[in-house]
Write a structure and sequence with these properties.
mainly beta, SH3 type barrels, 8-stranded antiparallel sheet, 6-stranded mixed sheet, 39% strand, globular
């Protein structure tokens, strides 16, 4: 049985001035998928709207994925896109900031696989995530990039012309970069290309290969 160690936020009052407090809360600074397991191959169970608050139960050791509750739904979300407030400034859970104090919990991959919903396939690379850590304060509220509203004919085209699924490390969000190794399909008579990445259809701006819209 493969057990993956994960860590959760905890309270260490007075240990470090301005450290993360008893509030096990974080804010999504972009629309963020919630999945049924910690990884891009797991099914999406909810979408956390930008600026919504979630309760954090635990994170992987590098906080790349965190166990969260949003409303009545529980699942996993990418720690790069969850921020907690320290000294009146947002700090990403995956920033490595030592003021975010952590405790150990566990996750059982075998039980997750038995529960179903885990897609199969190989990880083909990694999404180019936006900045995290100390600079997250500069990007909360829009620097990740605002989603465009494509012409309905574009959405119809990508839905009607499916492409093979691709899995990349990281989470699909608006503003994430697509590595050059991933082949994108063109959308005729537009500046967009598209792909089916980590379980969602994404529109990508051809010029800079960044996700500009997620088709849901």
């Amino acid at each position: 049985m493969f057990i993956k160690t994960i860590l959760g936020m905890s309270v260490v009052a007075g240990l470090i001035a301005g450290a993360a407090t008893a509030e096990t809360q974080a804010t999504a600074w972009t629309d963020l998928n919630m999945r049924d397991g910690p990884g891009p191959m797991h099914s999406i169970v909810d979408v956390i709207p930008a600026n919504d608050t979630v309760m954090v139960q635990g994170c992987l050791t590098d906080a790349s994925w965190c166990r969260v509750t949003h409303g009545e739904t529980s699942g996993w979300a990418a720690g790069n896109y969850l921020a907690t407030t320290i000294e009146n400034a947002p700090v990403a859970l995956a920033s490595g900031d030592k003021r975010v104090v952590l405790k150990t919990v566990t996750y059982d991959n075998e039980q997750a696989a038995t529960a179903g919903g885990l897609a199969t396939g190989a990880i083909a690379g990694a999404l180019v995530a936006g900045p995290v850590g100390a600079v997250v304060g500069a990007i909360v509220g829009g620097a990740v990039g605002a989603s465009v509203e494509p012409d309905p004919t574009v959405v119809t085209y990508v839905k009607s012309n499916p492409v093979d699924p691709i899995y990349l490390d990281g989470e699909v969000v608006v503003g994430a970069g697509i590595p050059d190794t991933v082949m994108l399909a063109p959308v005729p008579e537009s500046t967009y290309e598209y792909a089916y990445i980590n379980g969602v259809l994404v529109l990508v701006e051809t010029k800079d290969r960044k996700v500009v819209h997620i088709v849901r």
